[in-house]
Specification:
mainly alpha; 92 residues; 74% helix; 4 helices
Amino acid sequence: MVNLNLKEIEDDLYDVDSRKLRNEEYLYSRRSKAKSPSQPTNHPDAKKHQIVSFIKSGVRIAGYVLLAADMLVACAVVLILSEVVGIYEELV
């Protein structure tokens, strides 16, 4: 069993400035080790993603409208097509 000195624990808990200093040192040491990427990051094109997302939503809406007329066309063609567009959306 570990013998814990209650006074030492309380002193450590009440010493806020010391904890802040240790935390700042830790954060500084974490930041200094970060390396910048050697190549620029390739971010996705937000505008293309938005356009493809709107197309996907339009195809889905058309599929839901077609549900009342023809269940096979709505489910098998239009809604599956919207999922294919959704996959493309994630690649843009």
